[in-house]
Amino acid sequence: MSIKIIVLSFLILSISNVLGQNKAVTLSGITKDKTSKETLLYVNVLLKNSKGTILIAGTVTNEEGRFSFANVVPGNYFLECTLVGFKTKTQPIYVGSLSEFLDEGTVELEKDATVLSEVVVVSKQELINSKMDKKTFSVADNMSQSGGSVLQTMQNLPGVTVHDGKVQIRGNDKVTVLIDGKQTALTGFGNQSGLDNIPASAIEKIEIINNPSAKYDANGNAGIVNIIYKKNKKEGFNGKVGITSGLGSLWERKENLPTIRPQYSVTPKINPTLSLNYRKNKINAFFQGDYLYTETLNKNEFVTRTYTDGTIINQQSKRNRNTHFTTIKTGIDWNINEQNSLTVSGLFGTEKIIDNGDQPFFNENYSQRLRLWQFLEDELKTTAMVTAAYQHKFKQAGRLLNIGLNYTFHREDEKYFFDNIMPKYTGKDAFKLLSDEKVADFNIDYSKPLKYGRFETGFKFRKRDIPTNMQFFPGANSPIDSGAGGQATYKEIIPAVYGNYIFENNKIEAEVGLRVEYVNLRYNINPDHNTYKSDGYSYAQPFPNVRLAYKIDGNNKISLFYNRRVDRPNEVDIRIFPKYDDAEIIKVGNPALRPQFTNLLELGYKTNLKKGYFYSAAYHRFANATITRIASTVPDSNLIYAIFQNANKSQNTGIEMVLSQDIAKWYSFNFNFNAYHNRISAFTIQNLYPQLNTFSAEKQDIFSGNIKWNNTLHVSKKVDAQVTAIYLAPDIIPQGKIASRFSIDFGIKKSVQNGKGEFFLNATDLFNTLVIKKQIQGQDFNYSSTDYYETQVIRLGYIYKF
């Protein structure tokens, strides 16, 4: 009996083993350059039978250089890889049956010297990725903005507009900015700052993520801007050095009001840059250093304020700015072995700003100067960030464990000196602000490939402390509210966990994720403050995201997105200290501000054309407790106080289209059209500062949008040019509207020294047409403004690669 059982068991195991060997297998791998070890994108990978005569399957490597074949029957095959500029690589492979997933490892392609000696191969990445959730822009391709700042570079990117020094995506400025995928104090945690002072020369590319997955922090309802620094991975020692100089404000667009200091004109700019990289064996060391010096007519705004009692005040706000900005990023990549790697890097930035400002105030017919407010702002911002990132690659291809630690220190040291010149006296006032921001982030991320996709999960913990100290030094007859100074401390703790599942077959794509965040924020205020007391909030909220896509055929795809996101008030938004860079329109934070939660629905479509592509998306975004700045007055005063508040509901509904096409060898273009309907519901709020007052606003809505047309001209083998036309339609702003704006940008570059050197010349706002006009309606006042700040800049630069 026992012998029969043993024989029967053996037969069952044998049968099950045979059945198991008939299962399909997923075969994957990665392609790299044999010399530089860089991953290769868009390689054609073919799977052929054992004789190499019959095609079994074909694919193209993705943005990470990876390829994958699903449903491969066990047996012998040939793998063939081809890419322009490289020799065709063919190698035999055996697909076994003991594992559902097989990793072919790294397939190295060797450059074809005969091809490369005759033609320079340029890899052009599509602007819209295959998932339609992200746009990627190469900074080097943006000829009309070379040598400027990151903010200036982004002005002509499709779907992006710039207003008051902030990036807007589809008409919304609630944008989160990352550097190499991480939030930093250099660009703001949860908001955006400093983009106009980061040299574009330090940046490789910029990603605009409209529909972030659960992997990303939940803040930034308009989307995410990811700024990716340069880092070369070629073998040996190599680098890049460059210098750019320029001039702005070439002529005076509107002359000053009487009795003030001259406005800046013919303002100089200079931007040297140095990039170094050394790669050998298991070590890759990198260094990126940039310096940006600019003199700028930062503001030149003419305002007319009209009050219900008949008072009319005319004023000008002129600000001459000198900026010194230095950024250094350095680090080491250590490939410990095939499974483990460690990257340690540091980022240091220092920004020195000197503002000389003049604000004259006149009566209705300019016959009497009511006040002259002159100030000197001396501000130093220092940022230091240290990052350690460890990665473990499991034996299964694509199965990864990432552990990261990021610490940021940011100091804001700001001094203001004022001369309050009145008809009968002159007062001298000052204040000093010192703020130290300390942020620690720890994250663990795990990714596991599945038969038809992958699963991602992770944990993140953030601790953020910002002690601030504002000291006022009032002079005689001072207008400064010295009782609003003192100390305040911002404390924030955020643990978060997420899971994300991605599925794909030959027709369907799906991505479903959930991020759960807990936030505990405390804002402790000096108890002697004359208006505000300590405040804070906490919540635990889910933030789901869904992406469903249907592949109509090889060239057409439709995708549906949903995500829920949040915009938490930043420390500056709730900062209790009044700011006096404008003597009579005073900005104040609000500690009672609460988060703004937003839902987004989007339907996207993309089709590949013969020499380009067409992309369109319809979207609807709706938010509760919309964060906005409200301007109001108090009885018996002409001063206007602009204070952040949670207004009512808001909606943003629109459509975006991108058409990219190569018309001829010498001409290609990218056309972007974005139209939307913005609406803010009626609301009533209470302002506490400087005294209790109630403000009500009626519903606001407008149809707006923008058009951007990028034209690239291949003048010759070594000369390229770019012309960009931008039109921004009228739009609503808090309590008012902003008028239409348009500009033309131009750039040209020439390759020299066998491709190692490059000269470029460009002009932003070539015809000096970009002027900001606004109309604001308050409860007891209205004002109109026109800002002739510096927009036209001409630059000349040279870059050399070695």
Describe the structure.
- It contains four helices and 44 strands.
- With 802 residues, it is mainly beta.
- The strands form seven sheets. It has a 22-stranded antiparallel barrel.
User: Can you give the helix content as a percent range?
Assistant: under 10%
Low-confidence stretches: 1-22, 115-123
Gyration radius, rounded: 29 Å
Q: Give a count of the beta strands, DSSP E runs of length 2 or more.
A: 44
Q: Report the principal-axis shape.
A: globular
- Class based on secondary structure composition and strand pairing: mainly beta
Largest sheet geometry: 22 strands, antiparallel, barrel
Distance between the ends: 80 Å
Oligomer: single chain
As a percent range, the share of strand residues is over 45%
Mean pLDDT: 87
Distinct helical segment count = 4
Question: Topology, please?
Answer:
Elements lengths: L1 H20 L3 E9 L10 E5 L6 E6 L5 E7 L2 E8 L6 E7 L5 E9 L3 H4 L17 E5 L11 H5 L5 E4 L2 E4 L5 E5 L23 E7 L13 E7 L6 E13 L18 E14 L2 E25 L4 E24 L4 E23 L6 E25 L6 E22 L4 E25 L2 E21 L12 E19 L3 E18 L9 E19 L2 E12 L3 H4 L10 E4 L7 E14 L2 E13 L2 E6 L7 E7 L3 E15 L2 E14 L2 E5 L5 E5 L2 E15 L4 E10 L2 E3 L2 E3 L2 E12 L4 E8 L7 E6 L3 E7 L5 E9 L1
Parallel strand pairs: 1-7, 11-13, 27-31
Antiparallel strand pairs: 1-4, 2-3, 2-5, 5-6, 8-12, 9-10, 12-13, 14-15, 14-44, 15-16, 16-17, 16-43, 17-18, 18-19, 19-20, 20-21, 21-22, 22-23, 23-24, 24-25, 25-26, 26-28, 28-29, 29-32, 30-31, 32-33, 33-36, 34-35, 36-37, 37-40, 38-39, 39-42, 40-41, 41-44, 42-43
